[in-house]
Protein 1
Amino acid sequence: MLLEPRRLSCLLRRLLEFALLAGIPLTLGTPLLLKDYYRIVFWMASRQSSSLFMIVLLMSTGMLLLVIVWEARKMLVSVDKNQPFVRANVQSLKRIALSALLIAGAYIIKSFLFPTFLTIVIALMTFVVGLFVSVMAQLFEQAVTVKEENDLTV
C-alpha cells in the first residue's frame, strides 16, 4: 500500500481544507474574475444576459461544490477518530448527493441554453456521482443500524 490509511485520510483532509480555502474566495470573486473574460470571449460579447446567467451558474454550482468539500472533510474527521459509521456521515452523504444532483440539474439547464460537449459531460458525471453517493448513503445507513444493534447486544 502506498500510504497507510491514517496518513491517506489526513492527506486528503488537508487537500480538502486547501480546496475550501481556495474555493471560497474564487466562488465569491466569480463576477470580478469573469467580468473581463466575457468581454474577450466572442460568443458572449454581445449577450449581457448570457454572461449574467453564466456568473449565477458558476457561483451557485461553486457554492454547492464547497458544500460537497465541507461534508467530505467532516466525514474524514470522523474516519480519523475511528468512527466512520455514524449518523452524521449518513447525513453528510445525503447532502453530498443532493448537492451533486443540483449541480447536474444546473448544467442540464445550461446544456439547453448554451449546449457544449463539456456541459453535457459535467451534467452526466455529476448526475452519476449524485446517484452513486445516494446509494452509499443508504449503505452507510444500514451499516450504522447494524453497528448500533451490535453495540446494544455487547
Note: The mean pLDDT is 89.
Protein 2
Amino acid sequence: MIAELALQFVRSALLKPNSSRSSDDQKILEKHAAGMLFFVVSCRILPLPNKGPGAWGGIHICGRAPINVTGAQSKSEIGDALYGGNDPADNSGVLSYIRLEYTGYAFSEEKEANGFTFYGVGNGTVVDHLQSYKGSDDGLEWFGGTVNVKYLVATDNSDDSFDWTAGWCK
C-alpha cells in the first residue's frame, strides 16, 4: 500500500502547473485517521543514511491559483517549476494524515526546501492533519495561493514553523 501511494505521489508531485492532470493524479496522498502515513528517511521509500534534519527535501506542490507577485506566475525555489495562475479553485489533490520527518535542505540562502511547500495551491485542494517534524528549515511554507488548511503541526523545525512568502490570496 505504501509503495503504491509513493508511486502515485511521485507521478503527481512531478506535474507542473501547466501540464494536464488525470483524475488519478488528483489524489496525491490520502490516508485515514486509523493509519497516518509517515515519510521518514529510514523507510523503504526513502532509504537515506542520515536520519536527521535536512536528510531529504520534503513535499513541494505547484498549483495554478493566484499568487501575490507581479505577473500571474513565478518559479519555485526548488527545481524552477512554474506555479501560479488565475484559478483560485485549482485542485492539486489531497494531502491528509501525513507526517514528514527530517526534511529540508538549503541549496543556498535563497533556495531552501521545507517540510511541506505550497506554491500557488488553490482552494480545491484538501489539506488537513499534517505534521512536519524536525526539519532543517520551515515546517510549512506558502507562496501565494488560496488553499484552506486545518489541523497542522510543526514540531522542532530549525526555522519558522509556518511561513508565508508572497502571502495568501483571497
Note: The first strand starts at residue 29 and ends at 30.
Protein 3
Amino acid sequence: MRIPRNKIRLFLVLILPAVLIGVLGCGAQVPTPTPTETPTTEAMPSEREPEISGLVAGGAGLAMPPGFGANVYFLGLSNPTSIAVSGDGVVFVSQQDGTIAALRDMDSDGEADSVELYARGFSAPLGLAHRHDTLYVSSRGSVTALRDSDGDGQPDDIETIVSDLPTGIHQNNGLAFGPDGKMYLTLGSTCNACRERSELSATVLQLNPDGSDLRVYAAGLRNVYDIAFHPEDGTLFGADNGRDELQLNVPEELNLLVEGGNYGWPDCWGNARAPTARVRSRPSPRWRSAPRRTGWCSIRARCFRRNTQMTCSLRSGAHTSGTRGGR
C-alpha cells in the first residue's frame, strides 16, 4: 500500500535532513553552478516544555511520531544535504558533491519517476528554498538564485545574490521565506566558542529576495542548521547546535526566534552558563533543549504540519529521536 503524497513530502522534509552530512572545507572557493542535461548520480530555564511523544514504526525502516508514515521516494543520491519542494511538486535535492538534483513523481504514486541534474559546481550546498520560479541555494559563503523563467525545468538565469559571508568551522546553512516576503538565512559561527570578528557570524540573517538589505535578525546562535515558519501564525523556529565540549553537557536547542533576540552563545545554553561567561542581559527564551547523549549529535531537521508542530530529529552515534508538540 502506498503512503499518501502529503506524507511523502513530510518524510522528505522531516526525516531526510536528519541524516545529512555537510562538507565544510575551509577556504573553499565557490564555482559558478552550471545546468546540465544528465544527472551525476547560568542561563534561565525555559517557560514552555512541550512533551516528547514516543516513536513508532513508520515504514521504510524508520521510527516516526504516531500518525505518520513513510516509504522510499528515490534511491541513488550522493549524500543529500537539503531539500526544497516547488509549487508544482518538483523535489530539489542538494548533494554533498555540489550538485542539485530535480526529482519528479509523474504518476503521483509516491515515488520519483525521473531525476535530472539541475545545477552543479557548488561548494557545500547546505540549504535550499524555492519561491515562484526561483530556487535559492545556500552554499559556503554565498547564496545563489537559479531562475527558470521559461518553465522548461532548467535554470536559464543564475545569479549570486550574496557573497563573502564569514565562514570557518561552520558556514551559512538553511534558508526560508517568511510571511513578510523576506528571506531568512542561517549563518553559523566560525569557531566552537569565541568572540566573533564579524557581527554576521552565529546569527539568523534577514534580507530581500534579491540579496539587498542584509541585516542580523537574531544573534547568539552557534550553528542553526535550518529554520521554519509556522504556517498559521508566522512564528519562526530554528534548531541550534550547541558547543562541543562534552564535559559541559551543552544541549541542542530548538528556539523560537524573535527579531532582536540573543540566544546566549557562546556564554549561555539550556539551564547553565560557561564558567567564564560575561553575561549582562537575560538571553532570549528557548523553546526546547534536547539533552546531549554520548558522542556527537546535532539537530538537522525542521518542518510544520498544519495544526501540529513537527520538530527535530536528533542524530548521535546510534540514536535517532524526534519531538512533537502543539502550538
Note: The chain is about 5% helix and 35% strand.
